[in-house]
Predict the structure.
Amino acid sequence: MSSSPEPASAAVAETEGASTKVDFSANLYASPREKAVKYGLGACALLTVLTTLGIIGILLYESVGFFLQVSVIDFLTGTEWRFASTDPSFGVLPLVAGTLLITVIAAAVAMPIGLASAIYISEYASPRARRWLKPSLEVLAGVPTVVYGFFALTFVSGVIIQGIDSSLPPLNALSAGLVVGIMIIPMVASVSEDAIRAVPNSLAEGAYALGATKFEVVLRVIVPAALSGIIASFILALSRAIGETMIVAIAAGATANLTANPLESIQTMTGFIVQVAKGDIDQGTISYQSLFAVGLLLYLITLGMNLAANWIIRRYRENY
Amino acid sequence: MEDNAFNPQLQKRRRYGQVITGLLFLATVFGLLVLATLIVDVVTTGAGWLSRSFISGYPGATPEGSGIWPAIVGSLYLMGVVAGTAVPIGVGTAVYLEEYADEGLFKRVIQVNITNLAGVPSVVYGILGLGVFVYLFAMGNSLLAAGLTLSLLVLPIVVISTQEAIRSIPQGIRESAFALGATRSQMIWHHLIPIALPGILTGVILSLSRAVGETAPLVLVGAALAINFTPAHLLDDFTALPMLVFQWTEEPGAAFQELAAAAIIVLLAFLLLMNLSAILLRNYFEDQLTG
């Protein structure tokens, strides 16, 4: 504890947050009961670390068995994915390409619409409109993904795409990608909005003083100032799109297909995992293990993106 | 105007601004329009199949006479398991991080870890459940295995919302409790938890509604697609509402898709009910605290 006079008012403690919290109970008698509570709660916290270790452990353990039979190079660079045939081939690129295709389509929907929603809600909407716009957008994130899958298959693909050209396949990357994009709109919107609202007012006031109009202030001053947060929101949302499972399992098809044509049936990494799991899988077979290898790849990709996004958000917070 | 070096073109710039405002507004309501379309689509497709026998019946080979009772029971059981495990562990973790943990490496590691867990795809939790609960702990394709998997999945939501609720409590509450001679655990139990309860409850209900809607982890841990009995105990086979929706959506034939839509109506109604109760509970507790 510092020797300088401590302004121990609640207001100071509040504004400075937990990092400067003064420990007023340091001199309390630490009874066995108090210690038990402390260690019990600590054990809960430790369990969250165990979860991560469990995920990594189980993915690595089964993947090692897989990579003893299929080399890592063949897995990462192979262009054929035939896991159930008598002459199996485990090149993951078609699955990665499928995931990428879905992600690109979803990004094309969610990035502009999510960002525009964030700008509108934070800069244009009246406080009253904001109060109902924000929660209604959040509802989009609360709809179960299997419901989105149903919507993608029966409406987006069945009514819209088939209505335009009924010769197109009912299972295609486009319908799944569009709906994944809609699902991640709230994620882009809410993280971007936080970033936009964190821009100090003085920047906008300076621009107004120079004679800029409202849209010039918003698009040329506020949005660029919030850019890192906005980029973080894009990365987070895309990582969600990569990990999204039920929409693609229902609407994108089940053919591991190395293609960039959004109107073809494809399969994503997550779609493959569900396809294998739906059938009865025997522990120890190579199809069982391939599920873990694909899962490991998926985990590493999303983990990398989440770490990058959170790093950007943290760095950005220090700027203002 | 033309030979003027300074030409603000205010008219033109304001028109631009209006067009852009319009575009931003359209983008904002686009999401809501899609949501409305989704609901109208589901209700018009499935409403005809809703009946008392649909709720209380069992899934069958033909759409006629199929029902969702075992799935409703299964989903309720899953919610029970999640509420019984994720809530105490999640609240405990949050209390530890906010009130006990010293600043330092250990706390940072746990905090970063929780943030990352929140971003792990649900299908990966399913893989964890398959490897650990189903095979390693030999629980089989049971309710318990699925419930524990879902608990781990929603744990970060409970932790983060509880942390936010606890963090917003003024430091003075803690100081006055200590000043009156409370120990740390008494201060937490008698002051922090009751004050943070509205926030905690909101997080709990959010996480329960997330758990009820999740499908991918259930597929991974091997939930049955259709069973004709209600699970009797935690190690029984089971099915759940989203599993039935998944199965019926994939089934060929328009009748099964209408059945899926009917099951979706029940699922969405249930989620709506939960979220409404979250709002009501929060208002109730906030009234109690202020009044």
Notes: Residues 2-49 of chain B form one domain.
